[in-house]
Structures
1.
Amino acid sequence: MLSATRPLALATTLASALLLAGCGGSAADSGNGRSAVAAFYPLAWVTGRVAGDGWTVENLTGPGTEPHDLEVGIKQSAEVARADLVVLEHGFQPAVDETVDTNAPDAAIVDAAEVVDLMPASEHDHEHEEAGHDHGDLDPHFWQDPLLMADLGDAVAAQLADLDPDHASTYEQNAADLRGDLEALDQEYAAGLATCERTTTVVSHEAFSYLARYGLQFESIAGLSPDAEPTPADLARLQELIEEDGITTVFSERLASSKMADSLAGDLGLETAVLDPIEGLSDETADQDYLSLMGENLDALRKANACQ
């Protein structure tokens, strides 16, 4: 839910975005029955907003599936093979990369890893990568930064214009509208997290580092991958940090086990709460979208860190 202090303008933006349900523009003005596939939810949401109703946008990672765990089946392979456009993030889901290389050698591709500025992964992240999925030297979770999502939208619009020049102005306008929504969200985060009693936030895995530019510091129990295991030294360090900083909440997340967060919180008598990495939708969030989930995350962060 949106807090009472949040500006009406963003609430209006969220309502409008929910009505769009992942699409942008009007059916009369965009596309010509072409199809796109996106590797996982944030990419699919951006693609749908920019492409509009004239395109079919398929998300290869179905609701309730953790993107890291995706196994590409016959259905997804067929969707990739017939797609005019593929939107992915190279290195985040190796199974998707392999499927695209095999089944869509001629498709137009937008690779988020190439069109947005990914930040370096922390040393703490690399300590866990052998136990999980190796994402290399960069943190792939760029969609936590609304302005980087807007950059992805611009790149998708440019590629759509190349594929469908007759509707280039529609894609450009859809991307501009999307950027406006995302800039409003960015301003809401900046204002909402400007004055907090605490800035250190303990999360299950390192999916939120892009939010650090709003003044928060994130400490993860695991590394970049939700299935990585913390060492006893990691847990001891976190316990010390929690006591020193007066942290009251340990965040778990949807689509992944809350076991580590529950255990740490239980040992120290802390609260637990959900911070959604927005890697995908679930049954619980099926009626929501990126903007509304980011709004819920902001409310959760403000509460946990006693922000004014």
2.
Amino acid sequence: MSRPVSFAPGGNANLFARLASGFPADRSAIFLETDDGTRMTFAELLDRAGRIASLLVASGVQPGDRVAVQVEKSVGGIGLYLGVLQAGAVYVPLNPAYTPAELAHFIADAEPKVVVCDPAHEGALAPIAGRAWLLTLGTAGEGTLVAQAARLPSEREAVARVGDDLAAILYTSGTTGRSKGAMLTNDNLWSNATTLHRFWGFRPDDVLIHALPLFHTHGLFVALNLMLLNGGRMIFLPKFDPDRVIRLLPRATVMMGVPTFYTRMLASERLTREAAAGMRLFVSGSAPLLAATHEAFEARTGQRILERYGMTETGMSTSNPLDGECRAGTVGPALPGVALRVAGSEGEILAPDETGVLEVRGPNVFKGYWRLPAKTAEEMRPGGWFVTGDVARIAADGYVTIVGRAKDFIITGGLNVYPKEVETALDALPGVTESAVVGVPHPDFGEAVVAVLTVTSDPGDVVAALRDRLAAFKLPKHVAVVDELPRNAMGKVQKNLLREQFAALFG
């Protein structure tokens, strides 16, 4: 049975106050432990967050001011996240892999009052930070942030905020264009956390293996927020390592990951039914999980992977059920309180099992794009429906199948090709590990279908093998084999890079 979660004292909608309402009464309880034996209690977490909040407020940070953070994953980073929320400021996490040239765009766009970076990058960021106050935080807790916060009191009330106030700005991954800042409110993040807490049956004794990054929705607003709200324990890893994670499974009950985590675990002989026997929940998201991976994992461990669907702008919108059918190849039905529909090219609402662009409405849907009102208006329909840009179909029983991105859609010779359909056929061929299908310019057809594969053995004549499975216009006009597909930090294949790579293939 999951434990009911109370609202924050006094009705303060500040996300920090709401999450802290789920902390155990005994603050000496362990919240986090690392693989090297370091532990942090809830009392220590509150102490760190409170001192950072005191530093921000004392330094003139006002409610709604942005705090941009580009640091490596660390225990100290969690205290910083909560401290920013406690101060009523807006948390803006940035991928540590971004170069100074890339960061210049985000900092100019968000206009943060404070920028926090790794001590080693302070010199490179100083010219970019502009008038922002530049602080540093290293993975071992070193840096000016902790040193200055240590002198200040830790006990303070969370700054009062209302539900519609911003809690975070999260920049989109930018795989198909310039990153946009998605404005996420206290209510957006709170509604998603409480919905998932109930739907996934979280219990006070749950222990989560946290191997995801902290600059992305999955690791920050799903995994971390859920464990804060749950008052449970995390095993906190700096990055994913399959053998380390498998070794830790007997100490945990829940794991959240991207499909790459599960394929790499399956490649290890250490992944056995016995190793996973104490786990109650494996979750996958951020990129499509192949049905073959789902089936292989269940055959090896006896455990189903629960696949869900979400995005930066909406948090989580669908999930296969905890109890009930986890249907391979689908992302499950809509979460409670979330509405879904599929629309055609003219905006008409389609019937079940018809393919179109998925639209989402609910308390999880973001407030809009930061300082881009025209873009916000373009992607929102009347009635609060957000156009996700994902091509999908919804079965009569509500289960959603994601077909691909609308921007990945290929028109060849005037006919429409959904890359996911071709990829599914390719992935089923012997020797093919994974595929990515893109459209590239073609002098006769407008666009040509190109398949890029990773393989374990020679798949032979791929096109010939597909002739009985796909219409002729869907067949690849070129097949390339590569060592690995280009991915972003969350495991999504970067098809824009593949399109660029093969753009001149047909002249």
3.
Amino acid sequence: MSGFVSFVGSGPGDPELLTLKAVDRLKRADAVLFDDLSAGPILSHARRGADLVGVGKRAGRPSPKQDHVSRLLVEYAETGQRIVRLKSGDGGLFGRLEEELVALRAAGVAYEIVPGVPSAIAAAACAGIPLTRRLTARRVQFVTGHDVSGALPEDIDLDALADATATTVVFMGKRTFPRLAAALFARGLPKSTPALLAENVSRPEQSLHRDTVSGLSKRLAEEIGTAPALILYGPLAESGHD
């Protein structure tokens, strides 16, 4: 007997940002496999008696290997249970969703995808800024700040990322941002381009730091901390409120 898996985006961390469908799937699940950033109050919506299994991966910390997570997901589903795979933000944005989908398809397990509020959207909302603005920021680009080894990706499109008229959001990029910034300056990005470091988005310990790309690069070269973060830069990060 094969069960059913719901890939549920939990949003950036604030349980009030969960969708109604996400709450419904949590209440009906026999087991919840959750990311680190989906823990805490969000899990209070899980059904009493459901198995709660932490499988989160965090940079610089001991974490389950992806093949182990995928195998565990299949094993739970093969017991015939309803499973929620709870992913922070939206699972389709740098959430390693595809690897787990491939594993389920190979095992013949049915699934659905429940989208969540992307952390980039939540960060802009918390900062009081839009991601697009008529005439000055018609394009938004999302990019990961590191590859599987933790380094800045070698094939990253630096020319596109140096476009000062685009709003750029860098996921998981605190450690590599100084190197990225230097490469962007070499391609013409003004050092004075506004930047925003958003840490612990939507959580009680949220921190928003406004700077320039140059200033933020220097800050992160000295100290990156352990808080999960996004970096936004472009024509929009200069407005809004803290």
